[in-house]
């Protein structure tokens, strides 16, 4: 089954909110956990218990695990596996992007079903050229997995690159060119293609997403200030194909698992159609 199909089924059953697992040092401290691999493992385990049975997609942020070296990576491996066992799709947030041959190695690390770090999808950066991502997109497709390519990010600095025009003869923004390249890969897929994009909910994106035929990850919801009204204004009243993602705004309610569940349920209740 393709990733697009698996994602559509999961969202139909479990809803569209993507739960971020971002073990910030400040959150470990606020949860009364030590700033070491043991504290990280406890944090991740509570997130698995709180979210993985209910959310369609869970998004661990790799950086916070990598910060603890090999012990942190071991926790990430276990977290990915536990979320998948509980039925959630794992979108590993690694924002990789490299020359094609190295990209193939990153793809094997995260998208080859035989890898210990295999997730269901990864975030990718297209700023070495969208074409450099081809080995990852192809491997993802072979293994029924997906990718989410950064188009218009939620941070204020992103516009300097992403809103630039492609060339004097091609007046599109760089972000629109990323959307169009993803749309080309997704053409003809049903119900959704495997190539998603990332578009922050924090600012008006000005993009034409009508032909994308793929999922849109919308970060910036919650802690970075975007509200449900911002989401519907920017992505349409029914949020078709859109996965709003929230990390700190929900995680700050931990460490109690029931309190985390209640916080995510409160956010889900604000989304249209949920
Ligand atoms: O790819 C992402 O997930 C991402 C893209 C983007 O444009 N902005 C963005 O905030 N993110 C990630 O989404 C998460 C947002 O976390 P909160 O701001 O705590 O909800 C972090 O893991 C970010 O790295």
TrEMBL record:
<feature type="active site" description="Proton donor">
    <location>
        <position position="95"/>
    </location>
</feature>
<dbReference type="InterPro" id="IPR018089">
    <property type="entry name" value="OMPdecase_AS"/>
</dbReference>
<dbReference type="InterPro" id="IPR001754">
    <property type="entry name" value="OMPdeCOase_dom"/>
</dbReference>
<keyword id="KW-0456">Lyase</keyword>
<feature type="domain" description="Orotidine 5'-phosphate decarboxylase">
    <location>
        <begin position="16"/>
        <end position="263"/>
    </location>
</feature>
<dbReference type="InterPro" id="IPR013785">
    <property type="entry name" value="Aldolase_TIM"/>
</dbReference>
<dbReference type="Pfam" id="PF00215">
    <property type="entry name" value="OMPdecase"/>
</dbReference>
<protein>
    <recommendedName>
        <fullName>Orotidine 5'-phosphate decarboxylase</fullName>
        <ecNumber>4.1.1.23</ecNumber>
    </recommendedName>
</protein>
<dbReference type="InterPro" id="IPR011060">
    <property type="entry name" value="RibuloseP-bd_barrel"/>
</dbReference>
<keyword id="KW-0665">Pyrimidine biosynthesis</keyword>
<dbReference type="InterPro" id="IPR011995">
    <property type="entry name" value="OMPdecase_type-2"/>
</dbReference>
<comment type="pathway">
    <text>Pyrimidine metabolism; UMP biosynthesis via de novo pathway; UMP from orotate: step 2/2.</text>
</comment>
<comment type="similarity">
    <text>Belongs to the OMP decarboxylase family. Type 2 subfamily.</text>
</comment>
<dbReference type="GO" id="GO:0004590">
    <property type="term" value="F:orotidine-5'-phosphate decarboxylase activity"/>
</dbReference>
<keyword id="KW-0210">Decarboxylase</keyword>
